[in-house]
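Per reviewer request, we include the raw input and output of the structure prediction for the construct analysed in the revised manuscript.
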Amino acid sequence: MKRIALVLAVFTTFAHAQKPAPKPWTVEDIFRDGGPTGTPPRNIEWSPDGKLLTFLAPDNTVGKTGDLLALDTATNKITVLATAEKLSSAPISEKDKDHRARYGMPSYTWAADSKHLILDAGGVISLYDIAAQTATRIVDTQNGSGDDPKFSPDAKSISYLRDHNLFIAPATPNTHKELNLTNTQGDALLNGEVDWVYLEELDVRSNYFWSPDSQHIAYLQADEAKVPQYPLTNLSGIHATVDMQRYPQPGDPNPSVRVGIVSARGSKTKWLDIPQSPGNDYIPRFGWIDARTLYVEVLTRDQKSLNIYLADASSGKSHLILTDKDEKYLDTNYDVFPLGEQSNGDQPFLFMSWRNGHTHIYSYDYPKHPLEDEPLIPITSGDFDVQQFLGFDPKSHTAFYLSNEGNALGNSLWSISLSDGKLTKTRLTSGEGIHYIEFAPDFRHFVDMSSSALHPYNVSLCDLTQQCSSIWKSKTLDSLGYTSIQPQQLQLKAADKTTTLYATLTLPPNTANGEKIPLILNPYGGPHDQSVTNAWGGPIGLFDQLLAQHGFAVLVVDNRGMGGRGRDFEQAAYNNFGPIQLEDQLTSLDQVLALYPALNEKKIGLWGWSWGASLTLSAMEHSNRFKAGVAVAPVTDWRLYDSIYTERYLGLPSQNAVTYDTDATVKSATQLKGKLLLVHGTGDDNVHLANSMQQQQAFIDAHIPFDLQLYPNKTHSIAGYDARIHLFNRILQHFETNLK
């Protein structure tokens, strides 16, 4: 770490150099817009011709934060394409704002001609002419997030959603013409619109797609009439309002889904004949192979079997080409990557599976009349996980992907050639840390947004020879006057005494005064995610620095049941949502206390958010080790959470009631030890407020004291400057009061 520049102090007859005191961390500095290190570029996209790289403006660049910028890759000149005002002219609700941020909903979309953009300002759709630098309103969907505008492949039409129906309009300003391709009534039938549970749990970002020839649109229709509703109540006005959310809980009817095809000129929908169980099974992915053929995936409700069908667009008939199965549950990578029709008539595709223990890429070369038992060909293999498939270059027959090969806490960009049959693999990024990649359409250039634990984002434009030029760099902590503490990387043993667990420990400075150090655990614990990685931690990572500045040590452990370590490591969570995770956290705590005698075993706290909040409650109810804890937006009974997520791990409540009871913190509320702060946003559409209300009632019934903090209308993220500084100052105060 660099030393802060010396300051010269001049006294009466002599001068000496004195190092200024480090800048103290404050919650206000950490959670202000952009944070202390600045907001990096967002919504990074390439123009279809690869000549322009566009992104929402970061701090310290051309224009102002939130403007849409374009980098000319030939000249490296950056210009403003559209102002932030044009991209955000329509007011949107707290829920819509949260969805756009959490799910990465784009504010603009390129046309295939690379001459026009769609600007989406909360449902107000404008056509932007790049040459003329003018934006003309096409339509106001009056529906906020979820309007999902798209250009047709020939760039002559714009499609969008309004009132749960699918529309198209000419991509021509001031025509004021639109055609409704679907015309259903009511709020329970969604045509091409993504409902909450598909958005959150199946990672679906769109449910309708243009055919390559711009003649048809395939869309998913979801019938939610039988899905129970949850009331999201807004109490901030004179008269309360209620937003009824369709939300299937474990065992409830799921949306009944089917795929249809409609002509872009308007026609009756042709429904594809796909075998499935309506109201139970899921269709996580579908799309066009070519203008005549679609693929459709059907995932069984227990998520142990995924069938892939090919369907004829004209007849609607389908046939099964591939099945992926698992005894417990499948990995949540559902994407299919068609490689195009080959000269011999085959139409291969790539897809991802953890059938051999880790998530890897497989090729399936199916002929026109496929054999259902034709084997899959592994493209990648080894003791690592492929994290993301980034694309396939048909000219060089090369696939690109991110994986944690060689470093379980980081990742790298790799290419693998499929042309010579030898699967030649090349690493395309160097150094430690985490990379986020966006490839140009020609697969010759890519944007690399990299970071590491104490080094914020560096955004570079690179080519395949690993030659890179910087586009934007975050401010560094030392340049801002902060002294940062390098977290210590630890390898611990799980409760089974065999499995290695990764952890970090951040110790406060100046620990040589003899006083024992209070320790705070910050677990997540849930499937699919990693907390311990060599990545910039953002505000939460800086909050660890603040806690250390206040004299606390912070321990983060990735227990069994979390992601990034292969199938068996994650599937430890199967039928076990609490006990095994807590065992690993407690076992890790014992090891750390033995390694660091300066830690105070009598002053231990913990805090977590979402799954981590559930684990926090479980720890305080099933262990007497914790003197204080903070649970932010916990699931307190998994019967209250959504069907897709919960049933994947715990099955149906009717078949697995004992596990549901064992894993419900509301059932063991009478055992709470320590001082608890329970936190929830009243507008949380992910983990409903009912969870904390039922937990609270159980505490009241048992005469157990606790503190409660509600955030009016705030969603699961409890986003916004005022809410965040209030929340994190409360967390800090809670530990200062109860652990000091």
